Each structure stands twice: as C-alpha cells, then as structure tokens.
Amino acid sequence: MDCHFSLFSVLFLFVVVAAAATSLEENSVLSAKSEPLIRQVVGGADNLNDPRLGAEHHFELFKRRFGKSYKSQEEHDHRFKVFRANLRRARRHQSLDPSATHGVTQFSDLTPAEFRRTFLGLRSRLRLPSDANKAPILPTDSLPTDFDWRDRGAVAAVKNQGACGSCWSFSTTGALEGANFLATGKLVSLSEQQLVDCDHECDPEEPGSCDSGCNGGLMNSAFEYTLKAGGLMREEDYPYTGTDRGTCKFDKSKIVASVANFSVVSLDEEQIAANVVKNGPLAVAINAVFMQTYVGGVSCPYICSKRLDHGVLLVGYGSAGYAPIRMKEKSYWIIKNSWGENWGENGYYKICRGRNICGVDSMVSTVAAVQTTSQ
Ligand SMILES: *[C@@H]1O[C@H](CO)[C@@H](O)[C@H](O)[C@H]1NC(C)=O
A GO CC term (predicted)? Predict the structure, then answer.
C-alpha cells in the first residue's frame, strides 16, 4: 500500500487510536440504531431517501452523472455491489458526521482500499528533512474570526490529481503558490508534474521511503527537493499528465517560484491559525476516510482515525452558519482538495476545529518563497 504508516514513538498512540476508531466506524452501533436520512443535495431528483428509488436507480444516476462505463457485465455487477456498500457507508458516515452531508460522489464505485490506493498518496513519516525549521511561535491575540486566502487572491483554481496518488504534490504547489503570491504579488500556478517526475527525495533515516510520483510522497520532502532544485516551473510550462511514467523534464531556466525556507508548525490550533494568516496557505495532512462520501457542509465526525493518508491545503478558517448543538461556537478549517471542482463544495472541504479531527493538526507545514524581482 502506498500510504504505509510507519511507527514512530510520537505517533504510536495515534495508530492505536486509529485502529480502534476504524473498527468502531466500521461496526458502529450508532449507525445501526438510527439512520438519519442522507440529505443528498446534488443531482436534482437524486434523492436517496425516497423508498421507491432503489440502489439500481441511484447507480444509474451515478453512472450518467460521472460518465462511468464498465468493460464487462461482470465488472458492472461488481461495481454495483461496491456502490451499494458505499451507500450504506455514506449513511453510516452521515450518522457519525451530522453537520456534513454525505452521499454519492465520483468515488462511490470504489472500495475504501481502492480509493486510498488511487486517489490519496501521502507517505506518512515524521522524520523531517534536514532543512526543515520549527516555525517560531506567533502572537495569537488579534487573529481575525474569519479568514480566507481565496478572498485575497492567493489561491489558484482547484486542480485534479486524477487516478494518481500525487496529493502531496498538489499540497506542495498550493502552499508555494500562496507563499510566492505573498512574496511577489503575483499568483502563478505551479507544476505538480515536475514534482511527480523529478522529486525522488528520500528520508535519510528510513531507506526506501522516498517521494515517488503516483505512489505517494510527502510535502516536507517536496519542499526539500524544491529548495535543492532551485524552484518550480509554471503549470503551463510543465503540465500535469496524471502518470509517473515520463522522464524528468525540468528546465532550470524556467523556474518561476523558489523556496526560501520551510517550517513545521506546532500542533496548536491557534498557532496554525496564526501561521495561515501570516504566511499564507499551509500544507497539511489529513485522514481522508470521510472525504470519499463528503458532499458538503462542515465535517465534524464523532470519531475519525488520525492515520494520515492525504495531503491537502489549508487556506483559511471560518465559523459563519455553523452551530450544531455539540460544537457551538467552534469554527472550521477551509481545506482545498485536489479532486476537481465537482467534488465537495466546489472542490473544497470544511472540517471543524478544536479536536485535531481526522489528524488535521498533526502535520502542518509553512513555506516561504524567495522574493524575486524578475517575474
Ligand atoms: C524564511 O524566509 C523568509 C523570507 O526570506 C524570512 O522572512 C524568514 O525569516 C525565514 N524564516 C526562517 C525560519 O528562516
């Protein structure tokens, strides 16, 4: 599996908790008791609550909506079985995560294992590259209550990693795009393919644990690569192909953004907020189990594994319009994902703050770009 989780003393506890959480989630008593109806809001007549509409009907809608076709009847029948299991899973997620909406997504015909293998791609390890700093502790007393880098022009359009475990490269470019915007005043979309093809940065203390294209990687090592390579090219000059079978076509003369330094942010939520406000969007890791069925709203599951398997971009935080009984006054992080604009809320995910939900506070990095004059 590409998202192998190594045991480190610090994270060992997480693993234990994660294992417990996973089995609890899968055999949840909660969900058996009462199944709150899925509030599927997309796709017009696509109402999962209508008892007259069976799984067959939803599968037909799903295939039409996402342009799915299967090679054989056998494959079709298998996918329908998986789809039905995912409908049940979405209902379970809905009862565990009532402030979000869970239902049919483009991933509804994939088993959880296929989903993890194909659409995530975070290699979880904690050893930091030699050039990683610890982010200085910032003052937190005058932070705004709501903050969103999208309103300030620091976030490029949502991209799509496709069927390739390259999430780490999108998280990396997103953070550097923001940092480069802060350093130069210009928003330039950067090349993930350069990272997928050229970045094979390894963990010095864990042989064989290296950034490896569609098989996974880590944002901190990608920052390390970018620092050593000199920078990243423009998206248009080195476009994304979604495969890692090509050779490295990096052209040093076409660098448009460079890393000055990068730092690891402490686990403290206020420090994370202070860092996003001061330094721009942050590269963060998360457990993506609820994201396979996420349709919208603020995700705040009662229980979620902290086993990190996905790299995303934290672009801000908010609180407006969110007050479920159990998390009153709590705000959420705004997360940019790399599964296209048709996933989630126009490509974005909201996850509640306060309890390191799904491990979102566990691996947070900030990058600073070199201030250039010749852009
Ligand atoms: C990182 O680089 C930025 C921009 O050059 C600089 O202002 C900052 O002090 C540096 N941070 C560290 C931790 O070296």
Answer: lytic vacuole
